[in-house]
Amino acid sequence: MTTTMLSSRDFNQDTSRAKKAAMAGPVFITDRGKPAHVLLSIEEYQRLTGGARKIADALAMPDQEPIEFEPPNIKLGLRVADLS
């Protein structure tokens, strides 16, 4: 795996070079000499994050204990509409 460092200026001037470099490994984009962002290929990103997930799967939280939730009872002040 090859690691590439690009300044923000170099990244802005040659994004195609950054995209090609990301196929070989992470591309660190620096601001004022300090790493600020990382560009990865989608394959590497999915490998690191465990692949694509659906929002329903993420919200289901299958590995968590069930959460007890007892919402309070609410009284609605309903009235009959006066249509006269």
Describe this entry's structure for a reader.
With 84 residues, this protein is of the alpha+beta class. It has a domain at 4-53: YefM-like domain (YefM-like fold). Helices cover 33% and strands 18% of the residues. The protein is built from 4 helices and 3 strands. The protein has helices spanning 8-13, 15-22, 42-49, 55-60, and strands at 4-7, 27-31, 34-39. The chain has a 3-stranded mixed beta sheet. Strand 2 (27-31) and strand 3 form a beta hairpin.
How would you describe this structure in keywords?
84 residues, alpha+beta, YefM-like fold, three-stranded mixed beta sheet, 4 helices, 33% helix
Brief rundown of the structure:
The protein has 84 residues and is α+β, with helices and mostly antiparallel strands.
**Which structural category fits the helices and strands?**
alpha+beta
SSE topology string: EHHEEHH
Output the number of helix runs. 4
Major sheet characteristics: 3 strands, mixed
Please give the share of residues in helix: 25-40%
Fraction in beta strands: 15-25%
CATH topology of the domain at 4-53: YefM-like fold
**CATH architectural grouping of the domain at 4-53:** 3-Layer(aba) Sandwich
Indicate the overall shape: elongated
